[in-house]
Amino acid sequence: MMRRVAQMRAEKMIGMLFGMRKIISSVVAGLLCFGASISVPASAQADDLQAMLKKAGQENAGVDLMAGRTYVVPETLNVPEGVRYIRGHGAHLDVRTQGTSSELASAFALAKETSGIELSDFTLNMKASSFSSGISGDHISNVTVRNVTMNDVNYRGVSILADHGDVSNVTVDRNTITMANENDGVVPIFVSTKRKKDAYTGQDHEIWKRYVATGTVVDPEYRNMGITITGNTINGGYYGIAFSGVTDSRITDNIIRNNTRNISMQDQSSHNRVENNQLRDSISSGIHIAYGSSDNQVKNNNIVTRRATGQGILQAYQGSKGNVFDSNTVTVREHHPSWLLYVGPGSSNTTFTNNIVDGMANRAFIGVESVWDGPSSLSNGGGVNINGHEDNPYSNMVQGVTNNPSGKPVKYAGGSEVLENITITGNTFTPRNKNLPVVYVGAEVTKGQGDGNGRAFRGDIKGVNVSGNTVKGDEYSQLLVTHEGKLDGVGPATISFTDKSVVGR
Question: How much is the pTM?
Answer without folding.
Answer: 0.92
